Amino acid sequence: MDGYLHLSEGVSYEGSWVGKAPDCEIAGEIVFFTGMTGYQEVLTDPSYKGQIIVFTYPLIGNYGINKEDAESKKPQPAAVIVYESERNCFHYEAEMSMSQYLQKWDIPVLSHVDTRSVVKKIREHGSMPAVLSTHENFEGGFTLQSDLKVPQVSTPKTVVYGEGKTHIVLFDFGYKKSILDSLLERDCKVTVVPYDSTFDYIQSLCPDGILLSNGPGDPKDLKRNLPQIKKVIEQFPTLGICLGHQLAALALGADTKKMLFGHRGANQPVCDHVSGKVFMSSQNHSYVVDEQTLTKAGLSARFINSNDNSVEGLSHQTLPLVTVQFHPEAHPGPADSEFIFAEFINLVETTKRRVVNYA
Ligand SMILES: NC(=O)CC[C@H](N)C(=O)O
Known about the structure:
Bound molecules: glutamine
Shape: globular
Helix content: 10-25%
CATH superfamily of the largest domain: Class I glutamine amidotransferase (GATase) domain
Structural class: alpha/beta
Strand content: 25-35%
Order of helices and strands: EEEHEEEEHEHEHEEHEHEHEHEEEEEH
Radius of gyration: 20 Å
Number of strands: 19
């Protein structure tokens, strides 16, 4: 059956539904992911909550969905656009096909869309509101719901994982499981807390360090939480990843802005100005920290994107703070930047020893 993708820029594309057509129109911000593999991780990354994802790789789904690679308990986007969706899956670990998985969760998939043309439109006009419909003509409006996404994906209660020697409190703005795994693999005990936890609550947990996670939406949606986040950063060694990096920058007084179409893929080159090395990184973001606003916040840009010179990570003049716009936990994508976790744990352990020595 035919389905249609309508972009707010006034262009429409025809495609065919994989599985059943949705009962109603599905709206979301349309974004594109350029990685060739890793669709399961992308679909389950809570940072994509409510977005319509276009996969630029023309064949998606051929190795199915397995038990291991989900980044959260369910797929998160509002809808998925592909060129070809493989109905069969060819992998010994596959439990079901991608289309079965998305249908189970009522997430529509529109295939045989001219994804190259859609991506060109997004590159030209930016990530924009879009609607998936069974009707060729769409008369409705393109205003997206302005609901807060982070509370929808954050844990409602505190959960403790592992019993390693370094105690990290992970602020859950919609964290990817691979971030938790990266900490557990490095001998950490991890306490995952709700996104709106207060400084007093965090202090009562006696952490050695803090991880501010990735998550969906505009970091400025969490304006009310910034004073608490600032107190936490000033008190404990902190690693901010993606949304967590943006929140750390805002909390300390820098600014963020929206990019035209963001970075979503597995091969974004980033230069580390401490080591002078360039590495490939996995990314998924629309917002970026504004470089012009860093100095007044005591921050400096340690990591810079080699394609467009945007800020990819920060350090602070005095505070033990590491923040990265890219994903050191990878999944999907290259693990070139996993050194960030080792560096962070080292920072936490050194700070811990210093505090013990002074006590
Ligand atoms: N992966 C993320 O944490 C994304 C951060 C933020 N939602 C953005 O789009 O920029």
